[in-house]
């Protein structure tokens, strides 16, 4: 299986089947079914395919599917009607499918009426879950993120016992506490006492939060071997959480990181509000990419992307899909770029980026020029994007209109996890990224799954779903570690965590806090055993 990272197309050969496959009843069954649907002419969401002597499938992200065979190899832009020559029959036939959900329809349809499609069904999991990691590193944040929001002070001994229980379940990274101002977070005023006891536990990493040099020095004095700095992609949240602008926070963290490097201390970097902010609403991916890049360039060994208020949803939206289509059209038609968009040089630059590369470069362009581009927002107001959903019209529109449309599409992707990840991945290697989802809207597991599909294999979570940020109004707890482990094990992904022991830890802290566990897995399994 090969992957073309530059364009974010995924291409893989249909390697189970050789050319004989196309003569088989399976293929004929599918193709007959497909022909029952009207051929598509426009926007078949993400279906794009390459055909050679054997069959290749090429698709955007997790969507597909179209297939066929031909003697020639050609990449078709999304949504074009495609004719191909069947190697035996020689008839030209239209073979694209027509809608975003075509894949599901196709399979179900085939199941009810075609023989021999079992093979097709057995291949399903591989198609859907083809790129998941084998191992996921869980970063347990319960003792810090989970407890920091608790109103009544949890005794230090309880915090220490909780950490021991979490470690006993197999968790090897446990964020233990914060060396922040006790005036700001009174619950964690005992950071030194907690760390001094647990730091002797072998083979476990205990990162602690440090908001400034003062916190860093206190943490090192207490025996910290790993610290975490926490910036925000939202200016408003930065002010309410750490009382400074994003720029000021990055300057502070530069000092912390410089000092940490001297001490040989590992640094984790957080970016908060990566999809939404309680004050500013949707956060543009370019802002997240900018902060993540800064932290990474400074020397953070891992960047954790936090959906602080849990508003993110996994998917891209229809407008964003259209954005992808626009790019395809540009590539396919090699449209000339009349940079007659006189509004600003930045827009011209942006259009050139659009012409030359993929969404990655656009994200980069947005990151560097984002401020100016956003100023150009008014330009897009006069356009109604729905007018442009027809690809034929798109192809004939003056370049600047398409550019405008694209701006609109980009602006509309805010609040979506995939778009955010894609922007960040332009700057930070995937193995240096972690995700940190609060579960306010019940989207955390879905967001984790798409993050895994994007190649990320470090996931933050909190035992019993404890947590919430004292400075993020309305935010509830992190996704429960028990639920994450249950899902990962269900997917066949290793975590080295024993779910029963983890639930013990969850029960322990829930009892101490006097409320039921926030983990659905724990609740369900307890019901079974009582
Ligand atoms: C950054 C500050 C300190 C600025 O706070 P400030 O008031 O602007 O700073 P200051 O320098 O004026 O200090 C105020 C007082 O705190 C003291 N102080 C100053 N620094 C420290 C320190 N390190 N340790 C102990 N004490 C400290 C300092 O000495 C002074 O004491 P006073 O002179 O008034 O007696 C403050 O805003 C703060 O501590 N904020 C932390 C807030 C916090 O912990 N939020 C939750 C964590 S972030 C989060 O949850 C998000 C995350 C990471 O989980 C990811 C996600 O979900 O998105």
UniProtKB/TrEMBL annotation:
Pathway assignment: Metabolic intermediate metabolism; (S)-3-hydroxy-3-methylglutaryl-CoA degradation; acetoacetate from (S)-3-hydroxy-3-methylglutaryl-CoA: step 1/1
EC number, UniProt record: 4.1.3.4
Record-annotated membrane-spanning stretches: none
Domain of life from the UniProt record: Eukaryota
Record-linked Pfam families: HMGL-like
Catalytic reaction(s) noted: (3S)-3-hydroxy-3-methylglutaryl-CoA = acetoacetate + acetyl-CoA
Family matches, as PROSITE patterns: PYR_CT
GO biological process: one example: L-leucine catabolic process
GO molecular function: hydroxymethylglutaryl-CoA lyase activity; metal ion binding
Keywords: Lyase, Metal-binding
Pyruvate carboxyltransferase domain ranges (all copies): 136-503
NCBIfam families, per database record: PRK05692.1
PANTHER family registered for this protein in UniProt: HYDROXYMETHYLGLUTARYL-COA LYASE
Protein name: hydroxymethylglutaryl-CoA lyase
Organism the protein comes from: Zizania palustris (Northern wild rice)
Upper taxonomic lineage: Eukaryota, Viridiplantae, Streptophyta, Embryophyta, Tracheophyta
